[in-house]
Amino acid sequence: MSVKTLKINGIxxxxxxGTSILHAAQETGIRIPTLCHLEGVSDVSACxxxxxxxxxxxxxxxxxxxxxxxxxxxxxHTEQLQENRKMLVELLFAEGxxxxxxxxxxxxCELQDVAIEVGMDHTRFNYQFxxxxxxxxxxxxxxxxxxxxxCTRCVRVCAxxxxxxxxxxxxxxxxxxxxxxxxxxxxxxxACTSCGKCVEACPTxxxxxxxxxxxxxxxxxxxxxxxxxxxxxxxxxx
Amino acid sequence: MGINASKYWTLPLKGIxxxxxxxxxxxxxxxxxxxxxxxxxxxxxxxQGKIKAVQTGGPSGGCIPENAFDTAxxxxxxxxxxxxxxxxxxxxxxxxTNMVDMARFYMEFCRDETCGKCVPCRxxxxxxxxxxxxxxxxxxxxxxxxxxxxxxxLVKATSLCGLGQGAPNPIxxxxxxxxxEYLSLLK
Lengths: 238, 187
What we know:
The complex is a heterodimer.
Chain A: E1 3-8, E2 11-16, H1 21-28, E3 51-54, E4 60-62, E5 73-75, H2 79-95, H3 110-118, E6 134-135, E7 141-144, H4 153-162, E8 167-170, E9 177-180, H5 197-201, E10 207-209, H6 221-233
Parallel strand pairs in A: 1-5
Antiparallel strand pairs in A: 1-2, 3-4, 3-5, 6-7, 7-10, 8-9
Chain B: E1 5-10, E2 24-29, H1 34-41, E3 51-56, E4 62-65, H2 75-80, E5 89-94, H3 99-113, H4 119-136, H5 142-158, H6 162-166, H7 169-183
């Protein structure tokens, strides 16, 4: 096992080769905001919140998919990066219909947490007020597309861990949408095992358990992490 | 030099007056100046008009103002001017064309072409297009122009692929050379 040494925000860090900058920073006690990264599934670097600066390059690097290298000097919270993150969160809030006051995830929402973390108090951009629908055809769960930020965690958790691949992304650009099955109502998709991993993985209140009301969605992220990492950690009992 | 010839073609911009008399596909050696292409091969301005700029590199490229037409074309010189070789396309723009309108045309293209995977490109192109619309409709203020610049830099710096990274180029380059056209449209 080879070890790489690098500096993150001036702090010397030694981590295993192949570790992502995001994980290396976590080990150092530095939290880099992210909305699309989920432990145990592949990374897509789509939210662009985890971008960091690396000395010697004028490009920004997504820390979730960039591996550490020897002698690397990483900066995670420069003024420019903070401003970028704030604008990105503002863009997300302007894009969907995010009304915290009536959302099941209020108080337990990663989008909300990141907004607070980056210091966003309003959005300077135009609210788009898109026409999006709510699918309540599944007996146990519901999906409210108004709250979706297209992080695709549900897609990955369903395809990579459950192996059912119920979710996917359809259409493009501003019309991109998470779909179940072949763009069918969720309840009609026979591949769905009703495991609820997508509910646990969703960072916002988009996918929820039926019957929960404002602020009642609580996530047990340890469950998803157990399911995704138990094989590596040999925690399966049989 | 590995490549000593590159293809260029001049073509009319959709809905905007034709800039030069001759259009079509031409092939010129690297190092030819823009003025040679526009005036000798293109035959100069059509309709008694005056040429004010050329747009190179397609929707992700940028414009070059008339006072820089003596630049010899190669990859580095175009980059220094804030544009690029890109697809090799060259669009000649005459004085009747509004540069803000042209930037909007390209932004509309990028808004339609974005795949939607990453946040800055998916939502940023939509917002940029709307701000440009607001400017053209005469409803924008200085604050909108500031927002346009901030968002252009964000989309360029944080997008995942070349489409998003290049999408704000027409705005940034028209702002660089023709900011007065933006300012004259503000409230």
